[in-house]
Design brief:
GO terms for molecular function: 4-amino-4-deoxychorismate lyase activity; transaminase activity. Belongs to the class-IV pyridoxal-phosphate-dependent aminotransferase family. This is Aminotransferase, class IV. It comes from Syntrophobacter fumaroxidans (strain DSM 10017 / MPOB). One of its GO terms (cellular component) is cytosol. This protein is globular. Helix 6 crosses helix 8. Strands 7, 8, 9, 10, 11, 12, 13, 14 and 15 form a nine-stranded mixed beta sheet that branches. Strands 2-1-6-5-3-4 form a six-stranded antiparallel beta sheet. It has two domains: 116 residues, Aminotransferase class 4, branched-chain amino acid transferase, N-terminal domain (D-amino Acid Aminotransferase, Chain A, domain 1, 2-Layer Sandwich), CATH 3.30.470.10; 152 residues, D-amino Acid Aminotransferase, subunit A, domain 2 (D-amino Acid Aminotransferase, Chain A, domain 2, Alpha-Beta Barrel), CATH 3.20.10. Strand 3 and strand 4 form a beta hairpin. The protein is of the alpha+beta class. It is built from eight helices and 15 strands.
Length: 288
């Protein structure tokens, strides 16, 4: 079987069945479609092995519980379904991006009504990691100042338009990624990742109630701790961030990306080799 297009999955799993993507439909009254009433997780798979699947499922269930979306009766064995989807899609021998999406299902009632028939969907597509030359050059960050990180930023909800607008503003400014500030004007995260900084030899990460608890930053923190490097989580201003010598962006797909600059400021030690070595260790320890 030929791997499906990176942009257009050939087959998906929807509500218990594997179907061609072109034949997969949800109700026009689905609350995910109408209101963004749902959550998702994006994971990286390496040759059929989903990295940190258990961590992603734990975060998924926390978000579902917070939004009162119950899927216990409809939930599959996520790991088995994902592995079969990768096999059917011809992605068992390559790197893939896997996404689980859960919505409350169809309904027009106000508030957060009971999810009597939630919509469950899993998609997989080929993923091409950033080239070594991109890592060597590093990301350019742009501070997004049109608003601040939304109240639901601590959950990976389908209400994602703010972050897409932030990324577009960064692209329009000639940057690669957007830096998000919280309502207090402190650093929260980027539009699609967590931040890890090093100042005078000490690793730290910005903390804020208006940021997603990142799985990659948590696991990388463990890897650094295993080598005697503790990572401090603390509130940080922009001024504190630019005082760092090293800054990285982390997420589940690209794993670790060195940052070259933030606006006009350039970081003096992007630590490309360290980032690449840590990414290799992250993949090796991924389990599942």
């Amino acid at each position: 079987m030929n791997p499906q297009s990176p942009e257009h999955p050939g087959i998906v799993w929807l509500n218990g069945s594997f179907v061609p993507a072109g034949e997969a439909f949800v109700s026009p009254l689905d609350r995910g479609f109408l209101y963004g009433d749902g959550v998702f997780e994006t994971m990286r798979a390496e040759c059929g092995r989903v990295l940190y699947l258990g961590d992603h499922l734990e975060r998924l269930h926390r978000s579902l519980a917070a939004l009162r979306i119950r899927v216990s009766a409809a939930a599959p064995n996520w790991g088995e379904v994902v592995r079969e989807l990768l096999e059917r899609a011809g992605l068992r021998r390559s790197v893939a991006s896997v996404r689980i999406t859960v919505t409350r299902g169809a309904g027009l009632s106000p508030g957060l009504p009971e999810a009597s028939a939630p919509t469950l969907c899993i998609t997989a597509r080929g993923y091409v990691p950033p080239a070594p030359s991109v890592h060597a050059e590093g990301f350019r960050l742009h501070v997004f100042r049109s608003g601040f990180s939304p109240p639901l930023a601590g959950m990976k909800t389908l209400n994602y338009l703010y972050f897409l607008c932030a990324r577009q503003a960064a692209l329009d400014a000639g940057a690669d990624e957007a830096l998000i500030l919280d309502p207090e004007g402190r650093v929260a995260e980027t539009s699609a990742g967590s931040l890890l900084a090093r100042t005078d030899g000490r690793w730290w990460t910005p903390s804020s109630p208006f940021r997603l608890p990142g799985i990659t930053i948590a696991r990388v923190t463990d890897l650094l701790a295993a080598r005697g490097h503790n990572v401090e989580a603390r509130p940080a201003s922009l001024e504190e961030l630019v005082s760092a010598q090293t800054l990285w962006v982390l997420n589940s797909l690209m794993i670790v990306m060195p940052v070259r600059s933030l606006g006009e400021h350039r970081f003096v030690h992007p630590a490309h080799d360290e980032a690449a070595e840590l990414a290799r260790r992250f993949i090796a320890a991924g389990g599942n």
